[in-house]
């Protein structure tokens, strides 16, 4: 079955599942089914077991993997999930949903790639995103940092520390979640009526939390040291003796420490704004202005409970384009699309969700879209532990490392 047929099948199933299943039964009686591999359906994330499975194969003959399917089957196929279960893929991209519904074949790799390119991304980055989606995260996408460094060079900014800053922000976000998990358990126990059982459990959790913090300290120092090394190399011009690098590390100022954390956000927003400007002409004519051209079609026809209503609204946009472009301009301004300021709040939220390594705060920037035009007003996440603090407190820890 080709990719276009799969898309049409999805649309037909969403409109009349009974009729679609009758057609599917007829088709399967005349044409052989596509072979698929196997993988346990209960896994939402790629586990060590799954990674080992992909490495060793063969996928469809491993006895201990024979109970599931490699990819989520399409409508009418055995094991198909409902739209509600597919919703678990939210935040991972429109075409990621299509992979779950239909199967991650080569056609969808190219569809995903073209969809990302239509949103203003380079072909290399679009291909990396599509590969990440097609392999369900097995492929590690390193292209984003590479593209950030290109943009930083265009902006005249030093990107040497970006990779280590991105990694530290990602890990810091995970540490913060673990901190919050411990705090939630402790607060819940403290709010309970005192009893020997509660007191014992509270002591157990508190001790575990304290041990966890102690264990994280050397890890945090490693993350910080990588950034210190990058800043020191930049301070010495890239070529220096160990003694000169040591002196540079010891003289790092708080401003120098904070700069790569702020610059990576500035560059990410600059890159995103450039992409949004490139895609504006297309996205301003779409019902879903944040989607690519293929993603807009899927959102309008497939991933919706109101395909008819969305189709009518898309027709309205098409009519405005044909008969009254000024009305379309006003329509777009009303929904937050401005050709003179193409970076939207929704695009910023998507960026923040997709790339925790950029270190944006969880809270919305003050002042709405105006706030995100000044990335230095959005400091990176504060530290997860009481002694952690934000960048200033981190700098104090760095001073202990280099002092």
Question: Could you explain how this protein is built, in words?
Answer:
By secondary structure, this protein is an all-alpha fold. Among the domains are: about 5-150, no CATH class; about 265-375, no CATH class. It is built from 17 helices and no strands. The longest helix is centred in the middle third of the chain and has 40 residues, at about 195-235. The chain is globular and about 65 Å long. The model is unreliable at about 30-45, about 55-90 and about 365-390 (pLDDT under 50).
How much helix is in the residues? 55-70%
Shape assignment: globular
Could you tell me the mean pLDDT? 74
Our count of helices gives 17
Chart the SSEs and their pairings.
Elements: H1 3-15, H2 17-30, H3 48-56, H4 83-86, H5 94-102, H6 106-118, H7 123-134, H8 143-155, H9 162-190, H10 196-235, H11 242-250, H12 254-283, H13 293-301, H14 307-323, H15 325-334, H16 345-354, H17 391-402
Helix pairs in contact: 1-2, 5-6, 6-7, 8-12, 9-10, 10-11, 10-17, 14-15
Key descriptive features of the protein:
403 residues; mainly alpha; 17 helices
Give a short summary of the structure.
This protein has helices at residues 3-15, 17-30, 48-56, 83-86, 94-102, 106-118, 123-134, 143-155, 162-190, 196-235, 242-250, 254-283, 293-301, 307-323, 325-334, 345-354, 391-402.
